[in-house]
Specification:
Length: about 260
């Protein structure tokens, strides 16, 4: 069998032309389409990955902000609790200070009232004692209280022990100023003369005297010179009475007894 080389060549040429045509107009577009699809899929995958990364980042950011918010809320709650505790303690301290101040003011008021009452009682007692003494001396002996007190003070001078008399005598001798006689009342000339004579006899000297009134002596007489003095007053006899009044004022009042219940 003879081979028709022309036909074989024509068929080979047709095949090559067909292959070139398929490669150019079919295979290449298909490859480009596949490549474009792959790129599109890769882009979509990259975009999805980017979206996922963004979502993850946003999630982490949200979680971070949520954690910060929780921390800030906890800090604010703790701060509010601390401020409330501090304010509560401040109010308690202010209330305690106010209560202490009120208690101190009440105690001061009570002490002032007790002092005023004490002074009123002492003053009234002195006035009553003086009035009773004056009336008693006038009724019984026909002498005034001032005369009797002057006589008692003169007797007190004469009854001084040697040591006290010696100290007072030296003070009277060494004093450049007249000796001072203080009394709670204005001494009449007669009583001043009695005291002058009693002092001169007691100290065997002509003592110069200066007379002044001093109500705080509590109806008494006081002789002083150069820091030395001898005195007598009714206050000595009122001391025990005053102590008794102080004890009476300091004694707490007995609680009132509740009334008995009347049976039904």
């Amino acid at each position: 069998m003879l081979i028709d080389w022309f036909t074989v060549g024509a068929q080979a040429l047709n095949f090559l032309i067909l292959v070139w045509l398929m490669k150019r107009y079919l295979y290449q577009p298909v490859l480009k389409a596949i490549d474009a699809r792959e790129k599109r899929i890769a882009a979509q995958i990259a975009d999805a990955a980017a979206r996922e990364a963004t979502a993850t980042q946003e999630k982490e950011e949200f979680q971070r902000k949520n954690a910060e918010f929780d921390k800030q809320r906890a800090d604010m709650l703790n701060k509010a609790a601390d401020e409330a505790k501090s304010e509560r303690q401040r109010l308690i301290d202010e209330a305690r200070k106010a209560a202490d101040a009120l208690s101190a003011k009440r105690d001061e008021l009570l002490r002032s009232e007790v002092k005023n009452l004490h002074e009123s009682i002492v003053q009234r007692t002195q006035e009553e004692v003086f009035a009773i003494a004056r009336k008693t001396l006038t009724d019984l002996a026909g002498v005034s209280l001032e005369e009797r007190m002057t006589a008692v003070f003169a007797s007190r001078l004469q009854a001084m022990d040697d040591a006290a008399r010696g100290r007072l005598a030296d003070a009277l001798k060494n004093s450049a100023e007249p000796a001072l006689i203080c009394s709670a009342f204005e001494l009449p000339p007669e009583q001043r003369t009695v005291l002058q004579q009693a002092i001169n006899v007691t100290f065997s000297a002509d003592v110069h005297l200066r007379f002044e009134t001093a109500p705080e002596i509590v109806s008494g007489i006081e002789l002083s010179a150069s820091g030395q003095k001898v005195a007598w007053s009714i206050a000595d006899y009122l001391t025990s009475l005053q102590q008794g009044v102080d004890e009476l004022l300091a004694k707490p009042a007995a609680p009132e007894k509740a009334p008995d219940k009347i049976p039904a």
